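Researcher: Sequence recovery benchmark, item below. Answer with residues only.
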């Protein structure tokens, strides 16, 4: 093998390693009666991190469409979606997780984006991994935050 070819092989191996490290595998989840009862990660969500993801324009950007009294320090609230006040009284955790992962399972034809959608049962090929808007843990953080919004 020429030195050049050996060099190329080493470079490719290096690139593959970098790609695998940066792309999170999309975790599979089970939908039961339009809900996702089990945590995507098994790690409890952090409500404070969830609040940040809800506000972050590159992540949830939930405030583009939703208001909440608790978020009134934030500017540019949209009113496309219902106010999030009291969502924890209206929905249980399993349904809130479904709404964040893929709201079309709860509201057919909704404009709300799916933040963590895959086909629900199979592991996704590596080239599609990491293509969700949020990571699995960010979904859990947002759900934990929503669970604090009680009337
Ligand atoms: C493009 C606008 C849009 C964005 C962005 C959006 N939503 Fe929604 N959301 C909606 C709409 C519209 C509904 C009402 C469902 C329907 O009728 O389509 C909804 C419904 C909901 C509900 C159920 C509310 C209830 O009272 O029943 C929750 C919870 C929710 N969204 C949370 C979120 C969170 C958290 C985010 C960010 C991670 C988010 N949404 C981002 C538009 C949006």
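Model:
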């Amino acid at each position: 093998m020429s030195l050049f070819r050996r060099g190329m092989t080493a470079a490719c191996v290096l690139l593959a390693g970098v790609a695998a490290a940066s792309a999170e595998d999309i975790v599979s989840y089970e939908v039961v009666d339009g809900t996702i009862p089990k945590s995507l990660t098994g790690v409890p969500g952090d409500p404070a991190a969830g609040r940040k993801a809800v506000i972050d324009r590159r992540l949830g950007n939930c405030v583009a469409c939703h208001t909440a009294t608790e978020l009134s320090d934030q500017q540019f609230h949209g009113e496309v979606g219902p106010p999030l006040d009291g969502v924890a009284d209206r929905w249980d955790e399993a349904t809130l997780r479904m709404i964040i992962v893929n709201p079309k399972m709860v509201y057919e034809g909704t404009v709300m984006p799916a933040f963590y959608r895959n086909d629900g049962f199979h592991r996704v090929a590596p080239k599609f991994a990491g293509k969700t808007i949020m990571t699995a843990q960010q979904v859990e953080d947002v759900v934990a935050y929503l669970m604090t919004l009680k009337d």
